[in-house]
């Protein structure tokens, strides 16, 4: 006698599971970068497909083929254009790596303080 159980997973849980699975899959398939390099391999792509209650969830992840080197992070005062002591989302757009990492750097806030920016810069090394 077998008992089949239906596991219901909220959409957020399914997405988290899919992302975790994709990250694990990507890491397992990509060769390790040289010890002196801390950059991603340009042009890496992965796809994972998961069955969900309403169909299929497909997750695509990767890095663009042409990753631009934006150089070192600029000084805080350069990004703080209006000199109010913080970097807004609009001001962060001047440095694309910070713009794409805005939620992390701001701790899910609406702006980045000098201390948060210095921590973010330190984390980039």
List the helices and strands and how they pair.
Layout: H1 11-29, E1 45-52, E2 55-62, H2 76-79, E3 86-88, H3 89-92, H4 96-100, H5 102-105, E4 111-113, H6 114-124
Antiparallel strand pairs: 1-2, 3-4
Which segments are poorly predicted (pLDDT under 50) over 5 or more consecutive residues?
A: 22-40
The percentage of residues in β strands lies in 15-25%
**Distance between the first and last residues' Cα:** 58 Å
Tell me about the largest β-sheet: 2 strands, antiparallel
Radius of gyration, rounded? 20 Å
Number of individual domains: 2
- Considering DSSP H and I runs of 4 or more, what fraction of the residues is helical? 25-40%
Structure description:
- The protein has two domains: 52 residues, no CATH class; 49 residues, no CATH class.
- The protein is built from six helices and four strands, in the order H-E-E-H-E-H-H-H-E-H.
- About 15% of the residues have low confidence.
- It is elongated.
- The strands form two sheets. It has a two-stranded antiparallel ribbon. The protein has a two-stranded antiparallel ribbon with strand order 3-4.
- By secondary structure, it is of the alpha+beta class.
- Strand 1 and strand 2 form a beta hairpin.
- The relative contact order is 0.11.
In short:
With 125 residues, this protein is an alpha+beta fold. It has 6 helices and 4 strands.
Task: Name the features.
single chain, 125 residues, alpha+beta, 2 domains, two-stranded antiparallel ribbon, 38% helix
